[in-house]
Amino acid sequence: MGRFTRAEMQERNRAKVLAAAREEFTERGFRDAKIDSIAERARLTRGAVYSNFPGKRALYFAVLADLAEHDATPPDLESGGTAREALGAFARAWVARLPLATDEQHSPARLGMDLLSEVLADERTRLPFAQLMKLDAILLGLALERLRPPEEPTGRLVSVAEVAFTTLYGAGQMAAAAPGFADPFNVVSVCEQLADLDLGDTWQPPHLAYVPRARPADEPWSPPPAADVIRGEPARLADDGVVAILGLHRLEAAEEAVRAAPPTATVTAVLVTGDPGELAPLARLVIAELRVCLRQAFPPSAWPRLQVVYDTSGTLAAAAGVPAVSDGTEAAVRVEAGRIVARADGRGACHAAASAGEPN
User: Fold this and answer.
1) Which of 141, 200, 259, 358 could link 161 by a cystine bridge, Cβ 3.0 to 4.6 Å?
2) pLDDT single digits (tens) 89-118
């Protein structure tokens, strides 16, 4: 057998660290877990652990993200046909993953119980998490809107999705702190009824005075291959539409691109960050948990039109003409016939690029 390349060895070590960390976090909990113990379990040095992950919290996020992304639960072939049914199915899939009163304190079911406390512990994670939840609500709301009967008034359902996530995350915290406190069936019933509420939610586009003008362009568009992590398939980056490069502090701007773009346009949110070591695993985790439940609740025809792509290396951003990225990045390009025909930068860029060339 030939020797491993440096890249192959790094990948093997990373996998060994993740496996060891999962064992350590499961047996001892996040608080009591030790990097030295993880290194010993992996039969690596402490330095080898830190060469792959910047710290224990980043490693914790990565373990949870890896588990969520490899969830083997098959899609529900009888997923909801109405917004009420789909939201109920989404809630059932969510609460099915919560720990039970009979679970031991340190068990795989309780592995994620420290997630929110770790997010809240640092401003560097609080704002990205808030924006990731905004993106989750946008994706869920867009999916709910696609299940509305044609005769119903067109309205935004993102606020309904936000309230549903508030309910479900609250149920998760109570399941961790006081197992058995709330009946999961009641939580599902509450979420189902949210779909019937009129929250007066209407889309308010950004004021044109605060939106930068899109700049006309005529540039070749040759994006590198990338995956749409919502659908688990190659992203359709060459399609006519909008590609938005968004730092983790600006994710809610993705909705501006979706609402302003023509109905047939493909809209892609490319997630970038200035802290890929810790924040990229957090993003992967939050989006993967959404995707698992979407698969259980919505037919493929109702999945949101928005594609989501991770760009931790900045390669895709550079191809779009954004060579330097941060968590505050907002830039967007309009693509037509394989060429970039318009671009915009700064707050409001998504709306500007999506509406470029469209009648006011």
Assistant:
1) 141
2) 999 999 988 877 666 666 566 788 899 999
62 is written with which tokens?
């990565």
Structure tokens at 278: 């810790």
* Tens-digit pLDDT profile for residues 232-258: 999 999 999 999 999 999 999 999 999
- Is residue 233 within a helix (H) or strand (E), and if so which, with residue range? strand 233-234
* Type of residue at 356: A
Q: Which of 344, 104, 125 is nearest to 245 (CA)?
A: 344
The string of DSSP codes covering 184-196 is HHHHHHHHHHHTT
- Helix (H, G, I), strand (E, B), or coil: what is residue 245? strand
Taking alpha carbons only, the member of 329, 331, 347 closest to residue 273 is: 329
Structure tokens at 289: 């948990």
Q: Which ranges constitute the DSSP H helices of 33-120? A: 35-42, 46-52, 56-69, 83-95, 115-120
What sign for the dihedral angle of Cα 166, 171, 176, 181? positive
Which helix (H) or strand (E) element contains residue 334? strand 330-336
Neighbours of 264 (CB within 10 A): 9
Strand-pairing partners, residue 246, are: 271, 330
Give the mean model confidence (pLDDT) for residues 133-147. 97
* C-alpha gyration radius of the chain: 21
CA distance 13 to 272: 25
Please, are residues 39 and 48 in contact by the beta-carbon 8 Å criterion? yes
Percent of the chain with pLDDT over 70: 93
pLDDT tens for 24-50 read 999 999 999 999 999 999 999 999 999
